């Protein structure tokens, strides 16, 4: 029972992640109605923003807004967007998630941040 619940939660999270990407793509598509574009931009920005209505450090309530607001926003955008547009962008988001992650590029960015953090620390101390 527990492993099935964990598996379902992981699948749900992957679906939400894919749909956030698809909603962002739909927001930039000229076939999407303007009101759905605006809502899609808001939902996608909220989903990836580190700023929440209820901060995540507040026990339980901090994650409730992410669990409720983002899926409801996605659901509303999907209802307002033509089905063929959403299907196309979901397929694009699926393909993007299957691409390999460049660990070298991540290492380069980490090295750059480390260099600037060290430089800044030496300048301030």
Automatic annotation (TrEMBL):
It is a multi-pass membrane protein. Its main location: membrane. This is DUF1232 domain-containing protein. Pfam families: DUF1232 (PF06803). Keywords: Membrane, Transmembrane, Transmembrane helix. It is found in: Endomembrane system. The keyword Transmembrane applies. Residues 38-72 form the DUF1232 domain. It comes from the Bacteria. GO terms for cellular component: endomembrane system. The keyword Transcription does not apply. The chain crosses the membrane at residues 34-53, 60-81, 101-121. It comes from Vreelandella sulfidaeris.
